[in-house]
Amino acid sequence: MEYRQIHYWQYVPGQEEEEVLEAALVMCEKGRHHETLSEIAAFITKHTGAKHVLIGRLSDDMQNVHTLVMMEDGKLQDNFTYSLKGTPCEETMCQRFCYYPFDVAASFPEDEDLDKMGVTSYLGSMLLSEENDPIGLIVLMDDKQIANAAFAEHLIMVLSPAIEEEIKLMKL
Q: What is the pTM of this model?
């Protein structure tokens, strides 16, 4: 099993990537509405090429995740709840950030959904409250290695405050 914390990689965005990151910042400053998380997921899909984008909220007991947005090939899917046990998301919640460039389904045999979805590559980041408590996660998954994972991580980091704010508003 290969695991990398890519947030320690040296990474300098190119001009096109800088423009995407600027657009992400503008998106974060826009007013919120009921489709904010879906728009953010679609933006991530468009600019990373990830087949699956998941934004989820942790259950109160921190054992399960309820998806707030599940996107596949740019299309919204039905939301669902799943257990963290035996998933790469469980590792994400322990490490704050995880990247499995290939063979993630084989690395987590208890997570049968990865195999069913044909997931090869996984990139996940923990979402935090203002008190730095875990409240959820954002995940990119693909049937091939995620292209430019360092940029994908950077994009997620730029968008995370808006996602975290939206999750907080949903709990009120």
A: 0.91
